[in-house]
Amino acid sequence: MPLVIFSGLPSSGKSTRARDLKQQLESKISSLEQGQPGANLKVILHTDESLGITKEEYRESRTEKSLRGLQMSAVKRDISRSNIVILDSPAYIKGFRYQLHCEAKALSTSCCVIHVLASLETCLNWNSERSKDDQWDPELLKQLSMRYEEPDGNSRWDSPLIPIAFDDVSIPFDDIWNTLVHQKAPQANAATMMKPATATNYLQELDKSTQFVINKVIEFEDLKTSRIKIDEDLFLDLPPQGVSNAKLQRIRRTFVTLNRVRSLDVDRIVPLFVDYLDSNINRDD
User: Fold this and answer.
1) Can you give the pTM of this predicted structure?
2) Which residues form a coiled coil (predicted)?
3) Comparing 6 with 167, which gets the higher pLDDT?
4) Is there a contact between 232 and 258 (Cβ–Cβ < 8 Å)?
5) Which helix (H) or strand (E) holds 211?
């Protein structure tokens, strides 16, 4: 059933709204009679706290990538036709929201984004009122504000978009319920539902995708940069001393050999190979 993505800066009141929505959804569902739309649905709320994610993990690119993987895994595990899954996270990268949209669409279920609107000044003020143990580092909060890619209702992965101002008295529950339960779910299509690859096509994709990553590394390494953008929301950090082409190709050959006998989903080859590279390029030869 539906996926609800909360998006907003830390200390904007986002988590309070997410908890409020969960309570109202559970109350609404319990009041329905058998056979009514939405009856017997289960509501699951995932937060950074419930997933064991700390505030400091948002500071570095390596830990930030891992925490998004953890959030994505939780959504993929629980999203189904019998659950309403609520993800309470900053969700400030549009590529991440697009991935979540694709997961919902692949199951032919609806997805909506709830954007909690609050200025950076408001968030900093509210953050200062938290207990010391629960506060965000103000500098980190400012960094997240600069990285924030606001949801756009004209983009299919951010639509339908439901904005809530930080000072709104209540959430627009009726609008949210109608969007989640009564609106027709988007149909899965070739863009979001991968077809199984044949054996021949898989080996071609494995070879092509891994070489694509190597080419990106070589291209950007010539520019003397330590952080390489491989794809949307996918980065690789190089060691200070760089890495030789010979070592890159050796790691690639090992990865290809290890994965020739099993068929990975085609859309997972690049991110898995980037993770494999990331864990091997710093090893001593």
Assistant:
1) 0.65
2) none
3) 6
4) no
5) helix 199-221
Centre a 10 Å sphere on the Cβ of residue 169 and count the other Cβ atoms it contains. 5
CA distance 285 to 273: 19
Cis peptide before 90 (omega within 30 of 0): no
The residue type of 25 is L
CA distances (Å), origin 178, targets 25, 85, 156, 181: 12, 16, 18, 5
DSSP state of 263: -
Strands 227-231 and 234-237: antiparallel
Helix/strand/coil for 18: helix
pLDDT tens digits along 9-53: 999 999 999 999 999 999 999 999 988 988 889 999 999 999 999
Q: Model confidence over 137-161: pLDDT tens digits?
A: 999 999 999 989 988 888 888 988 8
Tell me 170's DSSP state.
S
Two tokens at 96? 């991440």
Q: Give the pairing of strands 161-165 and 227-231.
A: unpaired
Q: Tokens standing for 95?
A: 């590529």
Q: Which domains does the chain have, with CATH numbers?
A: 3-182 (3.40.50.300), 199-280 (no CATH)
pLDDT tens figures, 188-224: 444 444 444 455 577 888 888 998 898 888 877 666 6
